[in-house]
Write a structure and sequence with these properties.
- The complex is a heterodimer of chains A (298) and B (307).
- With 298 residues, chain A is mostly helical.
- In chain A, helix 3 packs antiparallel against helix 8 and helix 9 packs across helix 10.
- Chain A is globular, with a radius of gyration of 28 Å.
- Chain B is an all-alpha fold.
- Chain B has one domain: MetI-like fold (Orthogonal Bundle), CATH 1.10.3720.
- Chain B contains 11 helices and 2 strands.
- A two-stranded antiparallel ribbon of chain B has the order 1-2.
- Classes of the chains: A mainly alpha (298), B mainly alpha (307).
- The interface between A and B is large, with 91 and 89 residues.
Chain lengths: 298, 307
């Protein structure tokens, strides 16, 4: 009968170690899942980029950049997407020229004057919503705003819809970058007797320049890959454009049409475009990110 | 005018100009809603509230009901969140707590680069690479081993499941990076206190970090949801584009965005166009509500304020 008395001290650590072992096992299991998720994400990135590169790189040649598109099946003629490259560059540039001054000035208001006001809070809230708003609805809006009244699809309409997508991004980054400028700089400029607006234009904008450029470049990279807002604004065209007032070729709607077509040579061309767009967007994104990191290290 | 007056005038002018541009954003937003509403009126008058729940979409007879695309949008988004939330939490946890310090920045950048790939490239990849694999391997396996109403129909590769998977891939970087930032904002003392009591890493995450950051995490999820609801090109490639109402994950369907992408330029009657515009308005309002909730939860001063 002395054995049961001796038992409890012997079993208690056993129970404890049993629970402990389970906790450790659960912990290890979750940590493993977490690591797998992260590795999985990286794997997907490499898989997609690898596929796009492998299937797309072979379509990239001199003709790709210099020739006009050809109808499907015409393998004897040189075929390319030169007009779409020019169209995308043109519309993206015009969109940038519209969205950057607009967004920087609006961001200035949010950062400098409208910090506490209801008006500022409303504009900030709407910008945040518009950043993630469905881009296809922006396309519908610009269709109603420009295409329908003017009676035809046009490069202008495409550029405006891209500008509307860039605007909130530029506004919010400008605001954030302006807020990062140290108060001492403002005080120093104001103490020298500079009016507030001069302090902003000559001191604060310069101090925030790198950050704002980064935001702008990221916004450009984003709209360069946009398709949905162009479908009913710039439409598409197999020809060289004469002006911004007519339907304009661009890479993303080309990619859409080619990829959805049943023709093998068009689908090959689509992979080429996918490769070109993805690589351009990634290169711009990576470079601007590196620039931003360098700045924050310095 | 003396120097001071000039400076004051300059300030007033500059302030006025910037205020005008900030106001421009509000005007733009208001114009968007008013314009969509006005142009949707013929459809709203013709079909009333029934537009939202009617499942007939027939351009030939000019009968339009939006339930199939609305259902497709909600269903594909639900699937996307189902896949994306656990994966994003895992990735965020890895980036914030588990990964060796040197690995965090490059790994984080790689995950965020997933968000930089244009949506049309996801769509194309989904159609040409992912869906044949699903059709050949995953979908027959699901039918053989699980079966039931969720996996009815021919395994074609395209359909709701594929749309949900591609959408998940696209929103993971958004949810993961916001959640990582939320995890990083948990005060070190709280975590150390829990570790000091003998908690394992998982227990610290479950009982300290997630409760502390729950509003931020919810905001991140709603942000991802807002993105998934309005995503167009990727979904258009893989959802199947069929007016077909089914709970089967393998069945092709339609979403609001893909309907717009496919049909907007082909609308040959005013009522058809108006119905499509009303669809766009519905999509915009749904995403507006979801994104507004996300912003509410992600307000910086509010995060973890109840601690």
């Amino acid at each position: 009968m002395s054995a049961p008395a001796a038992r409890p001290p012997a079993t208690r650590p056993n129970i404890k170690s049993h629970i402990m072992r389970r906790r450790i096992l659960v912990n290890r299991f979750i940590l493993l899942l977490s690591m797998l998720a992260a590795v999985g994400g990286l794997f997907m990135l490499i898989w997609i980029l690898g596929d796009v590169a492998m299937r797309g790189a072979s379509s990239i040649n001199w003709d790709f950049f210099t020739q006009l598109p050809t109808p499907p099946g015409t393998t004897d003629e040189p075929s390319g997407v030169a007009n779409a490259i020019v169209g995308t560059l043109l519309m993206t540039t015009i969109a940038t020229l519209i969205a950057v001054p607009f967004g920087v000035l609006a961001g200035t208001y949010l950062a400098e004057f409208g910090k506490e006001s209801k008006f500022g809070a409303t504009a900030r809230f709407i910008s945040d919503i518009l950043v993630s708003a469905p881009s296809i609805v922006i396309g519908v809006f610009v269709y109603l705003l420009l295409v329908k009244p003017m009676g035809n699809f046009s490069g202008w309409a495409g550029a405006v819809s891209l500008a509307i997508i860039m605007l909130p991004v530029v506004t919010r980054t400008s605001e954030e970058m302006l807020r990062l400028v140290p108060t001492e700089m403002r005080e120093a400029a104001l103490a020298l007797g500079a009016p507030y607006w001069k302090m902003l234009v000559q001191v604060i904008y310069r101090a925030a320049k790198t950050g704002m450029m980064t935001g702008i470049m990221l916004a450009v990279a984003r709209v360069a890959g946009e398709t949905a807002p162009l479908l009913f604004t710039s439409l598409n065209s197999p020809y060289w454009m004469d002006s911004m007032n007519e339907p304009m070729a661009n890479l993303t709607t080309d990619l859409f049409n080619y990829a959805m077509s049943p023709y093998a040579d068009w689908q090959r061309q689509a992979w080429g475009i996918a490769f070109l767009i993805t690589m351009s967007v990634l290169v711009v994104t990576i470079i601007t990110r590196l620039a931003l990191h360098q700045r924050s290290d310095a | 005018m003396n120097r001071v007056q000039r400076a004051v005038a300059g300030d007033t002018l500059f302030r006025g100009i910037t205020r005008g541009f900030a106001g421009g954003i509000i005007v733009l937003f208001a114009t968007l809603i008013i314009m969509l509403w006005q142009q949707a009126l013929p459809s709203i008058h013709a079909f009333g509230f029934g537009f939202l729940i009617d499942s007939s979409w027939n351009p030939v007879t000019n009968q339009f009901g939006a339930w199939i695309p609305i259902f497709g949008t909600l269903f594909s988004t639900f699937l996307a969140l189902l896949f994306a939330i656990p994966l994003s939490l895992g990735i965020a946890l890895f980036l914030a707590e588990l990964a060796p310090t040197w690995m965090r920045a490059p790994f984080g950048t790689a995950i965020e680069l997933l968000a930089a790939i244009p949506s049309i490239v996801y769509g194309m990849w989904g159609l040409f690479v992912l869906s044949p694999l699903l059709a050949d391997y995953l979908q027959p396996w699901l039918q053989d081993h699980i079966g039931g109403p969720l996996f009815l129909g021919a395994p074609m590769g395209i359909g709701m499941l594929t749309a949900g998977m591609i959408l998940a891939l696209m929103i993971i970087p958004f949810i993961a990076s916001v959640t990582r930032d939320v995890f990083l904002m948990v005060p070190q003392q709280l975590k150390e206190a829990a570790y000091g009591l003998g908690c394992t890493t998982w227990e610290v995450v479950r009982d300290v970090m997630i409760p502390y950051g729950k509003k931020g995490i919810a905001g991140a999820v709603f942000l991802g949801m807002g993105r998934a609801l309005g995503e167009t090109m990727a979904v258009t490639f893989v959802i199947g584009n069929a007016y077909h109402l089914s709970w089967s994950l393998l069945a092709p369907g339609n979403s609001i965005a893909s309907t717009l992408a496919n049909e907007f330029t082909e609308a040959d009657s005013d009522l058809y166009l108006s119905s499509l515009i009303e669809l766009g308005l519905v999509l915009f309002l749904i995403t507006f509500i979801v994104l507004a909730i996300a912003q509410w939860w992600l307000r910086p001063r509010k995060m973890g304020a109840d601690q």
